[in-house]
Specification:
Helices cover about 35% and strands about 15% of the residues. The protein has about 220 residues and is an alpha+beta fold. It has a single domain, classed as NADH Oxidase, CATH 3.40.109.10. It has a 4-stranded antiparallel beta sheet with strand order 1-2-4-3, with helices on both faces. α1 crosses α5 and α3 runs antiparallel to α4. The structure holds flavin mononucleotide.
């Protein structure tokens, strides 16, 4: 597949077939993750591949109430969601949450916190650099999945239940759960176009606010 086609059509998958992912395909997807850059090349990420139905069911029982709280907050405007298809997004995500346990693979992304060196701790805002050594690998995984014809979803809601997830999967002290990535073949077509802001709105030249591109 063309590289840019992969990027532009790797949307968040909500509807999965229950067919298993062949081992060689899954291996290539996981292998893609480890080539991502990390601060100091300290390689903090570890991945727990969950395929066991009982474990996936347990994850679903933890995920679903978190999702429903989010849905409620989104419904009353406490959490902002962008776009012109919000009801569809929420409906799709609700069905995804209900069927979380049926997704063939859930990859729990674990980060060894000692190997993360955030460079923005002294600023008067919440740090954002913590995730910078972790999520490039997740995106590698998602793009590799798309190139292999698999759908994928990056989720972080379940991170709120980290102690329970760590107990379920025997994740040692010192590791944080950074994401839960769903992977599987889709039961619907891939999106042909994701909803994103145009280049004219997001790229500036030399100083913030001076557009680098103009709309055609
Ligand atoms: C950091 C992050 C966390 C996310 N967490 C969740 C989640 O917990 N549950 C979920 O259903 N989707 C989650 N998503 C998916 C987003 O809702 C999705 O990327 C967004 O709606 C855009 O959809 P699209 O990529 O299909 O265009 C997350 C995405 C990101 C980048």
């Amino acid at each position: 597949m063309d590289f840019y086609e992969v990027i532009k059509t790797a949307g968040t998958a909500r509807y999965y077939k229950e067919d298993p992912i062949p081992d060689d395909v899954l291996t290539r997807v996981l292998d893609a993750a480890r080539w991502a850059p990390q601060g100091g090349n300290r390689q903090p990420n570890r991945y727990v591949v969950v395929r066991d139905p009982a474990k996936k069911q347990a994850l679903r029982e933890l995920y679903f109430p978190l999702w429903r709280n989010y849905l409620e907050a989104a419904g009353v405007g406490e959490i902002a969601i962008r776009g012109n298809a919000i009801p569809k997004l929420l409906k799709d995500a609700d069905i995804f949450a209900d069927n979380f346990h049926k997704v063939p693979v859930i990859v729990v992304v674990c980060a060894h916190m000692e190997d993360i060196h955030p460079t923005d701790l002294e600023l008067e805002r919440d740090p954002i650099v913590y995730g910078a050594s972790v999520y490039p690998a997740v995106q590698n995984m998602l793009l590799a999945a798309r190139a292999e014809g698999l759908g994928g979803s990056l989720t972080t809601l379940l991170c709120a239940e980290e102690p329970k997830v760590k107990a379920l999967l025997n994740i040692p002290d010192g590791y944080a759960t950074a994401a839960h990535v769903a992977l599987g073949y889709l039961s619907v077509p891939f999106p042909s176009k994701l909803t994103r802001l145009p280049l004219t709105d997001v790229v500036f030249s030399e100083e913030f606010g001076t557009p680098m591109y103009t709309a055609e």
